[in-house]
Amino acid sequence: MTLKRTQEQRIDYLIRYLLSERKEYQNTGVPANLSDKGLLLRSLMNVRPPAPVSGEFLREQDRYLQTRLSERGVTKVTDLTPVQPGLYLWQGDITTLAADAIVNAANSQMLGCFVPCHGCIDNAIHTYAGVQLRLECARIMAGQKEEPTGRAKITNAYNLPCRYVLHTVGPIIHGAVTRTDRELLAGCYRSCLELASSYGLKNVAFCCISTGEFHFPNELAAKIAIQTVREWQQKNPDKIGVIFNVFKDSDYEIYKRLLR
């Protein structure tokens, strides 16, 4: 008989399970405050290596994450209004978007962000998808050490409302942006679109690849993103709708101006 847990009982179970996996966590207690429990659970999920996990853990994790998703709310692509035919601009949390695919700005190891509660999109996507996503990424990467910049891989989305996650590694900028950097960033967008097309997907939501932690200038990155997507759509008319997803107000203003 399966035990029916409340949401708080689930988070307590998940925390205790993850703490029990590592000897160095044996003296770590479970916080009394629900918000602190959430931060601890996210931290433990973030640092957990891609190791086998019990079926009960996955069931309780999935129930916990699905409840969290219903609390945060889901946005459907049909709720959005295109700014141009086949192009959308949406400011919001990409982990709540029910698109065919969302794009993750991944690192070259392709295993997600291991920094506890880090603010990058890679961390958020792996957190809300669940530990299964890192396990799948590890299986994909088993035959290679690093993912080349400008390529893309596809995984299931697990507890995210989208169907798939497209993972791409953008260029990291040190100093001035080079022609190669521009070409590699454009390659990220093309690779994701080609991969989505091969899976028959009808829409893809792109984050602001390579900006933020990878230091690609936001405006230049947006120009490259829009130009590359437009060129691909012109060669592949009416095939894939593209949502440019932004989180910051400054990025929203950049894309709004460039798409005007």
UniProtKB/TrEMBL annotation:
- Which InterPro entries does the entry link to? Macro_dom, Macro_dom-like
Q: Mind listing the UniProt keywords for this protein, alphabetically?
A: Hydrolase
Pfam families of this UniProt entry? Answer: Macro (PF01661)
Q: Which GO terms describe its molecular function?
A: hydrolase activity
Q: Which CDD domains match?
A: Macro_OAADPr_deacetylase
Q: Where is the Macro domain?
A: 74-260
> What is the protein name stated in its UniProt record?
Protein-ADP-ribose hydrolase
